[in-house]
Amino acid sequence: xxxxxxxxxxxIATLCIAPSLIAxxxxxxxxxxxxxxxxxxxxxxxxxxxxxFLLEEKVKNAFTASDLVVxxxxxxxxxxxxxxxxxxxxxxxxxxxxxxxxxxxKILDDYLTTKxxxxxxxxxxxxxxxxxxxxxxxxxxxxxxxxxxxxxQMAAAEKKEVKGLETIEFQMSMFDEQSYEQQIDxxxxxLQKEGGMGTYFDEIVSAYTSQDIDVLYKVLNEFFxxxxxxxxxxxxxxxxxxxxxxxxxxxxNSVFYAVGAGHLGGEKGVVSLLKASGYRxxxxx
Length: 285
Prior knowledge:
The protein is α/β, with parallel strands linked by helices. It has one domain. It contains twelve helices and eight strands. Strands 6-4-7-2-1-8 form a six-stranded mixed sheet, sandwiched between helices. The longest helix is centred in the last third of the chain and has 22 residues, at 228-249. The chain is globular and about 60 Å long.
């Protein structure tokens, strides 16, 4: 049970909650304004193959030049793991198997057993978003990397404070916006797509590593095609909520913001919204 608990905590900590449409191919942006200190916004990928992981020198320089680090969550909060676990489990009388067909259960059970040696029985009392992230972790295997984990280590080494744009309660509540059946259907769709999970995930990794924000936006936008209302809550609404928080955090400190790269672009992406709010936003080439 301890092994499963550790896996669940790792899954949540690396969730890709994470879509973009801008001309420049860049993941790092300088943000300037009359009422703020010069800050930076960097687009992360929460989970990716270690072989594709690269922390460019310009990102390291921006990080070091900043006084404060702000991510989607305050990930160095010592109570974070305990808080996360509160939102993982289904109701007492509920089982995850109740929300899928026998065929779907077998597909997931076979995939997880083959990839991880742990079948669906281990996740029977957990919410579907755990399965979704587990499938991604199973695809990546042991050799995966995380920008958030890297930035936490850098912040500790440089004695920088870490804050979050959102609370754990808020992030976890977003998964309840979709029915459990819908969430399971999305996982099955990824697994059954031509080429399997690898094709979908590799498309995202390819777009990210080439810093091709247009392609990244297109891939993720297609994923939400059948549920535009959920896309609005997951992306657009959150982006809008972040803008005043960015302005507030950067009043007194130069801040390094690290958020999912999918939030950067599009008409309602962070870059466009910051510009619309009067800030000067330029890609760091």
